[in-house]
Amino acid sequence: MRIAVFDEYRIGVVGDDGVHDVTAALPGWRAELAPYLVNDFIARFAELRPAVEQLARDTPPRPLDQVRLRPPVPRPTHVFAAPVNYRAHQAEMKGSPMGSNTGLTAAELGFFLKATGSLSGASDPIELPARPDRRFDHEGELAFVIGRQAQGVSRDQALDHVFGYTILVDCTMRMTATQREERVLRKSFASFAPLGPWIVTADEIPDPSRLTIKLWVNGVQQQDASLTDLIVDVPGLIEQASAVLPLLPGDVYTTGSPAGVGELHPGDEVVVEIAGVGRMTLPVRTRDW
Ligand code: MN
Description:
This protein is of the alpha+beta class. It has 7 helices and 20 strands. Manganese (II) ion binds next to loops.
């Protein structure tokens, strides 16, 4: 099942004919709390699923091009991110002052966080701050969403805690030799975490390592990778992070970028696709504030 969040944070099921509003399946839903209640919807999904399926059949579809797709988890408690998690990306960053360049990978480094406020949806542009002196890059990544609390989970139990899979573009301001901001700041500008276009529930993706990810800028393919090449795979990431703190329903974990990271400029168009998950087309522009 494909779960989307759209317009004023309504919850939808995406079919071939558009998005069906299933918000009424969540008891006690309130417009004022809508972005946060998606976490409850995810936590209670097994119990709510019959009502969700009924509403998906009964409510008329809205064409996808007539809704605003929001991040499918608008207000997760955490957005975890794997640093250097593909050998080929490690190689392309080696020796560069642009990144942290410790020579270590996600296996040793664990995770960093992106600010949850940096999330945006598939209908939103990537907005670069007006800093012509700085380089901004795309990192196309598979992301997964936690479905039930994971604390001290072993890798063999880990996938039981995944609600589903989606795409995150981990946008990044690179460092220079003299400008050395924290990674969290450089990756947390508003709109630097496009997430979507929706979540595909985990029952449809029994083995995430079989997925592939592709990213194009202005029609030129920049990234093309198989998730089998992850240094720390999805179960490993859950084992590693859940040893530190509980991962909560709705939490987003982005798995790291393959090789082929490249620059973004105002006027560009980024397309990112994971077959079996979805595709986002994201314009890039200069932000107006
Ligand atoms: Mn990344």
